[in-house]
Design goal:
Blueprint (H helix, E strand, L loop, with lengths): L1 E2 L2 E2 L7 E6 L17 H5 L7 H6 L14 H13 L2 E6 L9 H11 L2 E6 L9 H4 L3 H13 L11 E6 L6 H17 L3 E4 L6 H11 L7 E3 L5
Parallel strand pairs: 3-4, 4-5, 5-6, 6-7, 7-8
Antiparallel strand pairs: 1-2
Helix pairs in contact: 3-4, 6-7, 7-8
Length: about 230
Amino acid sequence: VQTVLGLVEPGCLGYTLTHEHLTMNYSSCFCPPSPGQEPLSNGPIEMKNLFWIKQNPYSHKENLLLYQETDAVREELLHFKAAGGGTIVENTTTGISRDVNTLKKLAEETGVHIIAGAGFYVDSTHSAQTQAMTVEQLTGIIVDEVLKGADGTNIKCGVVGEIGCSWPLTPSEHRVLQATAQAQSQLGCPVIVHPGRNSDSPFQIIRILQEAGADVSKTVMSHLDR
């Protein structure tokens, strides 16, 4: 299994959390608060506004900035390890500020295996360059992130995903799904998908993946309970 520190035998992974985010910038998914609640949106995270933040997690700007909580994440990883945990599958992909250098540092400092995710998040996070790419170009990027390294580093991803999908699915997301399937057929690695918020979305995604050559027995559909 490819981790950010290198290959690890599957039997050495230990207890594994398969869908976590240790560092990311989710600002692209900010949802403006209701009129009159703007001060709550812009303020710091405090005990007095925790209830509102829990009810409006995407409307509080600081709450979307996980990348600035590295010390707290490190502490949580150490608690995880002390409780018997062994591995984290980190699902942050291109579009929400994947940071493989930070993941490598966290793995080194905590002794927890961390597996990084290759690929692209939802359409609203796709750059103009990403939206203009062909399926073949997108496939090449995903394959390179696993075989060569991600984000200009030699730190390799070990899974593809989470691949972000909206509802309705956009043309750019459709191409990313096709590229995901083609990359998986070359690599043989697992795929993790973030479906759109509609009960038909997972079925549409599986159909697209299958038609493009994916192995759905190695595909995880996340967030089905929301």
